[in-house]
Structure formats: structure tokens, C-alpha cells
Design brief:
The protein is built from three helices and five strands; from the N terminus they run αβββαββα. The chain is of the alpha+beta class and about 170 residues long. The protein has a five-stranded mixed sheet with strand order 1-2-3-4-5, with helices on both faces.
Length: about 170
């Protein structure tokens, strides 16, 4: 066997060993992430109870159908927890680490999906690393009324009423 043959064989063997090691590392990383998520969700139950929330459901799946060019694609949306406090129902999303920020686009889209599918009073984002619970609400368009606008409308209505009363009363 020549030196170049040994070198080529070494490169192939080294590449294969690197591939196997990389695959094992990725599998280990995914398993660690899943274990952390499972532990966080178990700890979330006692945290939510201490905060006064009653747990209605865990890992609730709500079926949805997405139509693409009129062809249906069934799927589902799954929430970590459905809880109740008083007469209000909330969807709780449990996060850990950097994923716990509601300002990131992926998290915001996920929470908006819950809001639209489950129709709760609000969404609660539970950061199990920091042990914080944040209430998330959504608003789009100009759906709220300003106090100033209501006062001006009331004043205009009163003036119109007085004018009409004066002439026809």
C-alpha cells in the first residue's frame, strides 16, 4: 500500500468517525433539551398552583385544518397547559432559556396561534428559569376607543340635542 492510499483511507475513516460523533452529539443535545423541557413542565404544575391557577388540561390538542389551494391539510395546535383563575381561562406556554422571550418572532407567532385557536382570555408565558409568569395580549388595528374621542362625541351629542330641543321643543 502506498502512502497516498493510506492518506485517502485515513481521510475517509476520519470523516466517517466525525460524522458518527457529530450525530451522537446532536442526539445527546436533543435529549438534554427534551429532558429540560419535561422537567420544566412538571415544575410548572406546582408553580401555577401556587399562583392560584387551576389546571384544566395538560398538552391539549385542538384540531385545525389548513387549506392550500382548496386542498385540506388536517393538523392540530397543542398547548402546554389550559388553566383557569376566577372565571377566566388562559393558555400557558412553558419556556426555558432564551426561548422564553415573548418578543422573538417564533414565540410571538406561537402565542398568537394559541390565542386564535383556543380563544382564551389571555396567554401566559411561563419562564421556568426565572420563575416569572407574563400575561400576553394581542391587539391589531384600531379597535380601542380613546377617552378623548368619547368625551368629544358626548359633547357634540349634547350640543346637537340642545339645539334640536331649542328649535323643536
Amino acid at each position: 500500500m502506498r502512502l497516498t492510499d493510506i492518506l485517502i483511507l485515513g481521510i475517509i475513516l476520519g470523516s466517517y468517525l466525525f460524522y458518527l460523533a457529530n450525530k451522537k452529539f446532536k442526539t445527546f443535545k436533543v435529549k438534554k433539551t427534551l429532558a429540560t423541557a419535561k422537567k420544566a413542565e412538571k415544575d410548572a404544575i406546582s408553580f401555577l398552583n401556587k399562583e392560584g391557577y387551576d389546571i384544566i388540561d395538560i398538552q391539549q390538542k385542538e384540531p385545525i385544518v389548513v387549506y392550500i389551494d382548496e386542498k385540506p391539510y388536517p393538523s392540530y395546535v397543542q398547548a402546554d397547559f389550559i388553566v383557569k383563575k376566577g372565571n377566566k381561562k388562559y393558555v400557558v406556554e412553558v419556556k426555558t432559556g432564551k426561548k422564553a422571550r415573548a418578543t422573538t418572532a417564533l414565540v410571538r407567532r406561537q402565542l398568537l396561534e394559541y390565542y386564535l385557536v383556543f380563544n382564551p382570555h389571555g396567554i401566559l408565558l411561563l419562564d421556568m428559569d426565572k420563575r416569572t409568569l407574563k400575561r400576553i395580549e394581542f391587539q391589531w388595528g384600531k379597535t380601542s376607543f380613546s377617552l378623548k374621542g368619547i368625551l368629544i362625541a358626548g359633547l357634540m351629542g349634547t350640543i346637537c340635542g340642545l339645539i334640536l330641543w331649542r328649535f323643536f321643543g
